[in-house]
Design a protein that fits this description.
Largest sheet: 7 strands, mixed
Helix content: 25-40%
Strand order of the largest sheet: 5-2-1-6-7-9-8
Order of helices and strands: EHEEEEEHHEHHEEHHH
Distance between the termini: 17 Å
Structural class: alpha/beta
Radius of gyration: 16 Å
Shape: globular
Length: 201
């Protein structure tokens, strides 16, 4: 089955640990993962990884993608350098293509007005409130939230973030999704048997 690519945004200071569970399991499920940067110039993650993006943001089109993933980064808090990625998220959602944002990327989406009319979460409510956005009443105290094609999560919840992404794209569902989460979040060894049985079908 040919699947459209998942596009992972990469920019200087991106938090490389926040999206690894999601992208690794999407790739194993047959979704090509492509990196998209401000340009195709090399960027460096918070962990010091050097990444040369597969394409520049200006080349990104929602119709060519299954999902846009926006990791956190120090740059989300430092100013408007990453605002073009929030605008890309708006274009994706308008086109009916899902977006997943974690940590500081949720602040960028709040500034863009994308959280005003969707249930969402982040690190803490007052982190987003500082943006002056109008969506405070839609903030949910949860590990990760999906609403209107948009996944949000706080910086300490990469596994819950991945769970929502995998569910959204239909990679895992029901008891298999629950087992995946219990294995990777709770280290529940008993969940592995459920995953093995699902893989054998």
């Amino acid at each position: 089955m040919n699947r459209k690519p998942v596009h992972l945004a990469v920019y200087d200071t991106f938090a490389d640990w926040e999206t690894g569970h999601a992208t690794a399991h999407l790739a194993r499920a047959g979704f090509p993962v492509r990196t998209v940067g401000p340009t195709t110039d090399e960027v460096r993650s918070l962990g010091g990884l050097r990444v040369r993006p597969d394409l520049a943001l200006a080349e990104l089109r929602p119709e060519d993608a299954a999902l846009l993933v926006l990791p956190g980064a120090d740059l989300w808090d430092a100013g408007d350098d990453l605002a073009p990625f929030a605008r890309a998220a708006r274009a994706f959602l308008h086109a009916g293509v899902p977006v997943a944002a974690i940590c500081g990327a949720t602040l960028g989406l709040a500034r863009e007005g994308l959280l005003d009319d969707r249930d969402h979460t982040s690190a803490v409510s007052f982190y987003l409130a500082a943006s002056g956005y109008a969506g405070g009443e839609r903030y949910v105290e949860a590990a990760a939230v999906t609403d209107g094609g948009l996944v949000t999560a706080g910086p300490t919840e990469p596994v819950a973030f991945a769970r929502e992404v995998l569910a959204l794209l239909g990679v895992y569902q029901g008891e298999v999704l629950d087992a995946w989460y219990r294995l990777f979040h709770d280290s529940d060894a008993g969940a592995y048997a459920v995953l093995q049985q699902a893989a054998a079908r």
